[in-house]
Design goal:
Blueprint lengths: L2 H11 L5 H17 L5 H8 L2 H22 L6 H16 L6 H49 L4 H52 L6
Helix pairs in contact: 1-2, 1-4, 4-5, 5-7, 6-7
């Protein structure tokens, strides 16, 4: 692989960036390759990794930067943006050969966090669906029964209607409550994964003599 072929392949894989961001990345690495006197694709690969590996690292870094910028501005980060950042980080980690024991430990912890995060969020969704579904069932049956019985046994019918309306109130409370709890879990997990990736990246960039 030639230097030009490497850079073209890198540019092709930066599909998640805007035109200006992609241009900045290509300008930076083109200048880096020239300054480091990397005259062949193999030399670049030995220094920066394959175009696929480097592109995934760049995309992860940009995703983290975007997430941190939103945090600094006080903007609310959506579960989708956090999930996208986590996915970019996972791809970057998976595409990077890891041989340093400390880095291996960080990767292991990162994947453990991902598993725990998925388990917690999945459990939260199941519990939320069960609670909301149960409340809907109780409210529906109570309202139907109350509407039917109010003409035959007024006070019993009113009691059922009261239970049904209470169920509706519980539903209106549970839905946003479950949403914010799940969103909180996603945010905490995303922040911790971002922190671990920073540690992983810093460890990789240290000279070998420091390990």
């Amino acid at each position: 692989m030639t230097t030009d072929a490497y850079l073209k392949e890198l540019q092709r894989r930066l599909h998640g960036l805007s035109d200006s961001e992609r241009s900045d990345v290509m300008d930076f690495y083109t200048e880096y390759v020239e300054d480091a006197n990397l005259t062949s694709g193999d030399a670049i690969v030995s220094k920066l990794g394959t175009p696929k590996q480097l592109a995934r690292k760049v995309l992860a870094d940009y995703s983290i930067k975007e997430n941190e910028t939103a945090e600094q501005k006080g903007e609310r980060r959506t579960p989708r943006s956090n999930a996208n950042m986590v996915w970019m980080i996972i791809l970057a980690i998976l595409s990077t050969p890891v041989t340093i024991p400390a880095a291996i430990a960080i990767v292991a912890v990162l994947f453990a966090v991902v598993v725990v995060m998925v388990a917690l969020i999945g459990s939260g969704i199941v519990v939320a669906v069960a609670l909301v579904g149960g409340a809907i069932a109780v409210a529906g049956v109570s309202l139907y029964t109350g509407a039917y019985m109010v003409f035959t046994n007024f006070f019993v019918g009113i009691a059922y209607l009261g239970v049904g309306l209470t169920g509706v109130g519980v539903i209106l409370i549970l839905i946003p409550l479950c949403y914010y709890i799940i969103r909180f879990l996603i945010q905490i997990s995303a922040n911790f994964i971002r922190f671990l990736y920073r540690k992983f990246s810093n460890r990789r960039q240290q000279p070998k003599g420091d390990h």
